[in-house]
């Protein structure tokens, strides 16, 4: 089976998941999706308080060996049992989810263009570009409402690790993108271009 692997990167709150969902809704298929977030390392050896302090915006926070193994398996038409991460406990859950192979594979995550082993497997690289102030406002809302965080913890984490790692890894990785998309999944012109390209290659 011919496969096309589409990478969707961008800072936290930039609109990656929204763009991924648009692609899922509009591609025939449907595509397979691997979320890099689900490959955060298991941290059973740490207490909750210790896990709260981990730098989750560093490349080392992810089990990239497993991620690359799963991406290669999907590319070779083999299904994978993807881990499921639980943000409320800062740890991998005991559940997995079956991801079936498909001609179009979407890969999403803040750091996928910063890890060469992942980057080289991607056929189309999309970077969702959104101003830091907008991303921060979205992040505060999401972390408090959906991830059970306090305002203080969001502020501490943002200034302590999220912002510096964004500047060190995420922003420079934009140079590896094929297309930089302002306004993410709401950018109709960019979406049409990407969908046409997908249609041409695997349609
Ligand atoms: N282009 C956009 N315009 C306005 N709001 C958006 C846009 N893209 C995403 N959002 C909103 O911003 C929030 C974060 O988007 P999301 O796609 O989850 O970001 P990410 O996956 O990069 O963290 C969500 O509430 C989403 O509805
Ligand atoms: N236990 C964790 C693990 C990760 N994060 C944050 O998630 C962000 C990435 O997800 P996006 O949907 O925002 O792209 C990343 O910036 C990590 O800081 C967390 O808060 N807790």
From TrEMBL:
GO terms for biological process: CTP salvage; UMP salvage. Keywords: ATP-binding, Cytoplasm, Kinase, Nucleotide-binding, Transferase. This is Uridine kinase. Pathway: Pyrimidine metabolism; CTP biosynthesis via salvage pathway; CTP from cytidine: step 1/3; Pyrimidine metabolism; UMP biosynthesis via salvage pathway; UMP from uridine: step 1/1. It comes from Brevibacterium sandarakinum. GO terms for cellular component: cytoplasm. Its EC number is 2.7.1.48. Its main location: cytoplasm. InterPro entries: P-loop_NTPase, PRK/URK, Uridine_kinase-like.
